[in-house]
Amino acid sequence: MLQLLTLSSLGKDLFNIKMLIVILITIGLITLMTILTYLLEQQVHRRKSRYWTILAHGSEALSVLISMILLRQIFITLNSGSIISWTYATVQLTILLFSLNTMRNLAVEIINLLMPLFIYGQAIWMGHTTQYLPIFVVMTIILIGTVIYITHNYQELHTTQWKYLLFQILYGGTWWGVIWSVHPFELTHTLVIIMAFILYMWLIRLAVNRVQKFFYEVLTFDRQVNYDELTGIRNRASFDTSANEVFNAFQQRHMGPITMAMFDIDHFKHFNDQYGHLAGDAVLRHVAHFFELELSQRSTHGQIFRYGGEEFVIIFRGSPALEVGQTMRTLQRELKTNPIKFNSETLAVTVSIGISELQPTDHRFTDWFVRVDDYLYQSKQAGRDQTTVESQLLID
């Protein structure tokens, strides 16, 4: 009879109007976390910078902690100051498992690994017994192994449904073992709780899959419209949009400095004629990736575009022309010392560069653009592999 009453209490805790509110809030938090993760991972992919990777993964981990804190405060409000609730524990575990499946980075993995110690330490500090410490140790060891496996075998788990379900049950089951070691409850409840946890995760996964599909379609469309298919950097259409936005903002607010650098690959036709068009494609990718990576690592705030053919443009916000000239001249020399390997050939690549800063006297965008193009032509006339800044050839 007592067991039936306890199960009835468990059912009321897990399935009531408060639970519905919490499910909706949890789905909302996870949706926001999904959006944040996709945006941050896109930046990591584009910038290819260790700094951005650390920043993105730290931000993702912080979003997990903030979500758990918000859920705690929501439960305190809904339950008159109490957080002793099956629903509370279940949604917190849902957040943890979701972050493990979606974010898949070291910071989130560490949160999952440390959380059992935090829960146990908090319980002991609040006066709970250490009678079941051996059970806590065993459950924590199994949980650690489960977390590590989920993190490093994500693709396998998501392509094999029975494995995904098995590790979801294992994750939830060991976590409830950890909780039981400080909050003993009827062991017969475990099955009901795990089933509720799986139900939560099914609802969350359904919502997240919808969001992920939407973002995949948006990002795919964005890449098709704004990114060059061959090199992966922004294309001519994206340049036209960005350049006009920068020019109009400068005209209205006179912010600055803003500098444009234009460069093209020296003797590019030679690569196509002598080694074939595949070699020419490889050279274009090599140059684009080299400049994109170097600009990102140097935190120059330079945004690179493929303007057309072998010609590229970079817009630097907040950098004067001479500073940009020194940076580009350094990259120009480094590119020359980093040849590309194509089949059995070693291809040395050089570029010619023209640079000019946007001026208040530029009444149209073309005034600025034509000036930069003229300086690029001067560099080519000077023998190529040169940099011209405001009509002055840079001399090493």
From TrEMBL:
Keywords: Membrane, Transmembrane, Transmembrane helix. GO terms for molecular function: diguanylate cyclase activity. It comes from the Bacteria. One of its GO terms (biological process) is cell adhesion involved in single-species biofilm formation. GO terms for cellular component: plasma membrane. This is Diguanylate cyclase. It comes from Lactiplantibacillus paraplantarum. The chain crosses the membrane at residues 20-40, 52-71, 83-100, 107-126, 132-152, 164-183, 189-208. The keyword Membrane applies. Residues 256-392 form the GGDEF domain.
